[in-house]
Amino acid sequence: MNLNATLFFQMIVFFVLAWVTMKFVWPPITKAIEERRQKIAEGLAAAEKGKSDLAQSQAKISAMEQSAKADLHLRTTEAEKHGAQIIEQARQEAEAERARIVEQARQEALQEAQRVRDALRDEVAKLAVQGASQILKREVDQKAHAELLAQLKTQL
């Protein structure tokens, strides 16, 4: 056989095989590669979106945390103020109660002192009458001299 003819037929077979490959084999391979490339691109886009969503979520969480801390600080401050007000109110009520008790005790002491004075006046009047009766060696009638005894009490 002739080398040129073999070479010619091999070139024809090569071109036919290349044409069949380009016409029937290459398009499905290209299509599969393109679909895979598109899936990879979509996956990367979803990953980027996920990253941005994560960053936004973290920012929201950070803002909520700061807000909660500020709210906690505000509530703590208000609770301390309220506690101080309650303590001050209790202190004022206790002071008022103490003043009332002291005044009541003072009034009772004054009443007791007055009662003791009255009892002492009566006792002094009785002793004066007894002393006068012993001096005079006769008994003085208390009923008859009630006016005189009343004057003596007021003088004492």
Automatic annotation (TrEMBL):
Q: Indicate where this protein resides in the cell.
A: Cell membrane; Endomembrane system
Cross-referenced InterPro entries: ATP_synth_B-like_membr_sf, ATP_synth_b/b'su_bac/chlpt, ATP_synth_F0_bsu_bac, ATP_synthase_B_chain
- Any Pfam family matching the protein: ATP-synt_B
Entry membrane topology? Single-pass membrane protein
Give me the segments passing through the membrane: 6-26
Q: What is its main location?
A: membrane
Residue ranges the record marks as coiled coil = 84-130
Mind telling me which SUPFAM superfamilies this protein's record contains? F1F0 ATP synthase subunit B, membrane domain
Give the record's keywords alphabetically: ATP synthesis, Cell membrane, CF(0), Coiled coil, Hydrogen ion transport, Ion transport, Membrane, Transmembrane, Transmembrane helix, Transport
Q: Which family does it belong to?
A: Belongs to the ATPase B chain family.
The task this protein performs is described as: Component of the F(0) channel, it forms part of the peripheral stalk, linking F(1) to F(0). The b'-subunit is a diverged and duplicated form of b found in plants and photosynthetic bacteria. F(1)F(0) ATP synthase produces ATP from ADP in the presence of a proton or sodium gradient. F-type ATPases consist of two structural domains, F(1) containing the extramembraneous catalytic core and F(0) containing the membrane proton channel, linked together by a central stalk and a peripheral stalk. During catalysis, ATP synthesis in the catalytic domain of F(1) is coupled via a rotary mechanism of the central stalk subunits to proton translocation.
Listed under subunit, the entry gives:
F-type ATPases have 2 components, F(1) - the catalytic core - and F(0) - the membrane proton channel. F(1) has five subunits: alpha(3), beta(3), gamma(1), delta(1), epsilon(1). F(0) has four main subunits: a(1), b(2) and c(10-14). The alpha and beta chains form an alternating ring which encloses part of the gamma chain. F(1) is attached to F(0) by a central stalk formed by the gamma and epsilon chains, while a peripheral stalk is formed by the delta and b chains.
- What is the name listed in the Swiss-Prot or TrEMBL entry for this protein? ATP synthase subunit b
Q: Per the UniProt entry, what species is this protein from, by scientific name?
A: Orrella daihaiensis
The primary gene name is atpF
